[in-house]
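Morning!

This is the sequence you dropped in the shared folder:
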Amino acid sequence: MIYLIRGFLKRFGRFNVAKRVSKPKTRFCSLGIFSKNKSRLHKLFMFPKLVRPPPAYAIMADESLVRAAIFERGTNMDFQGFVEKDFAVFEIEGLEPRMDALIANVRPKLTELGNALTPFLTATCGEEMFPHVAKHARRTVHPPNDTWVAWAANKRGYKALPHFQVGMFADYLFIVMAVIYESPNKTVLANALGKHERKVLDLVPKERQEQFYWSVDHTKPGGTKHSELGKNGLKSIAERLGTVKKSEVLCGRFLQKDDPLLQDGEELVKTIEETFETLLPLYKMAF
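The structure's back. Tokens below.
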């Protein structure tokens, strides 16, 4: 009799004698359909997988890494600085002649500088930074009035991100942190400038405020001295940065082309590193 009952149940599919397989139950909620397995739920919703690294401002620079980067730079670099001939390229007329002079005289120095400072910026910012030397590839008629190397936390480009730059116009070398019009971080920095007004104004030590400038157009030389900026100037920059689509802001140090520091490669690199450290809080505010 028992064999008949078991055969009947097996035939109608209610009970698998050989191997009973119980499917996990599911239920609905506002988060969708998921298993009742508590451990799986706990892992899924309480500890979500980190799909991207935390932003730079969330990571404190490791001083030991910074010191190691400086030591590595000092032992591997033979940067000689910039001379009058490098600035003179911007007096050459015509696109092709000026580009030939830039490629021959200035670009190799910017490339060397970019590679040399990358470990320092990576350690200082707490995330991997990549150098980008300006190619001016889009120019077809007018020669460039400036050139630069930029560092950003993206290997493919820098314009959409807050970044650091070292570059030159005809009269001076600039060392800046920049958020230009192509970056969506403009509004983030605009809010931070308004919220941390006092911190921004105290960013630069008083004895060096004459050497630091603010600019709202990276294509034009010059700017407003940090010592002359004041609350109203900073408020104006923040408001423009938050409302005007093509707005941008740069802050940093200018060194005139006849400054002896430019011809001392080792001291110039130290100055660049010190300037970037001063600008680091501003960089972090842009995230």
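Headline: The radius of gyration is 29 Å.

More detail when I'm at my desk.
O.
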